[in-house]
Amino acid sequence: MAKKRIVMALGHNALGTNLPEQKAAVGPTARVIADFIQNGWQVAIVHSNAPQVGMIHTAMNELCKNHASEGYTPAPMSVCSAMSQGYIGYDLQSGIRSELLRRGIYKPVSTILTQVMVDPYDESFYNPIKKIGRYMTREEADAEEAKGNYVTEVPEKGFQRIVSSPKPVAIVEIDAIRALLDADQIVISCGGGGIPVLEQGSNLKGASAVIEKDLTSGLLAKEVDADVLMLVTTVDNVMLNYGTPDAKPIEHMTVAEAEEYIRQGQFESASMLPKVEAALSFIKAGKGRSAIITSMEHAQDSISGHAGTTIE
């Protein structure tokens, strides 16, 4: 009997926001992932990278500014995204491997440096919204704008660079990811939504952008024909009337119900909406699929319908 396949998208709380926090967070995260593997699931993992890529971007640009005469150069967003995939993947694959070995399970765990193609005409390139990096003074912000970058003012904190968030179109390394899953191995891919690239003839050029991780997770789940897409976040359930006295957790949604809630504006555009949209896109692309939105603490119980929000 074929094993069931799950794509797990990990949010910030599963990884922490800096090196020490990440090291501490990976242990509990690896144990949850190992539970799924031990229970017979084939697992593909996607992770967020917003704090990490911001830290890398800031560090690289500060290095360039402070050592301008020594040949250091700024790192573009695509390179910073690749760096974050590497070091987050390193911690995750090491933690998962160790947890599996403690249980007597011998399976390779690999991180795939993943490029994700975006449309050069995506409207987000004309309306950047994703904040990255450190807070800047007015003078520093003016210098960023002189380079052709976008900045926004953050009340009482200064200015911050903003970049585009285009939708994912295709996963470049999808064949390698499929091959690993078909070989019953654990794969970590599409970290941070993937390294955004633009197709130019036979070349791929890095884009100054950040792809929404949840949307790429939905695309990956479709491409590997997963049975379940699990979006792991900070809340146990999707909520109706979130942030109000009438807030109510949702245990189950049909596709039609979820679409109606979107029309009502029930989900925040910067947090829950991309998760629900990714879930719907995945479910509607095949039969017998389901998506789950829940916290890491309830990930295992949510599979049997005893926790979280299931969309079918």
Task: Identify the strand order in the major beta sheet.
Answer: 3-9-2-1-12-16-17-15
* Quantity of strands, as a count: 17
Strand content: 15-25%
Mean pLDDT: 90
Can you write the helix and strand succession as a string? EHEHHEEEHEEEHEEEHEEEEHHEHE
Proportion of residues in helical segments = 25-40%
**Structural class by SSE content:** alpha/beta
C-alpha Rg (nearest Å) = 20 Å
> How far apart, in Å, are the first and last alpha carbons?
23 Å
Shape: globular
Q: Give the biggest beta sheet.
A: 8 strands, mixed
Segments where pLDDT lies below 50 for 5+ residues?
none
- The number of helical runs is 9
What does this structure look like?
It is a single chain. The protein has about 300 residues and is of the alpha/beta class. The protein contains 9 helices and 17 strands. It has helices at about 20-40, 50-65, 75-100, 140-145, 175-180, 215-225, 255-265, 270-285, 300-305; strands spanning about 5-10, 40-45, 110, 115-120, 130-135, 150-155, 160-165, 170, 185-190, 195-200, 205, 230-235, 240, 250, 250-255, 290-295, 310. The protein has an 8-stranded mixed sheet, with helices on both faces. It has a 4-stranded mixed sheet with strand order 8-4-10-11. Helix 6 runs parallel beside helix 8 (about 270-285). The longest helix is centred in the first third of the chain and has 26 residues, at about 75-100. The chain is globular.
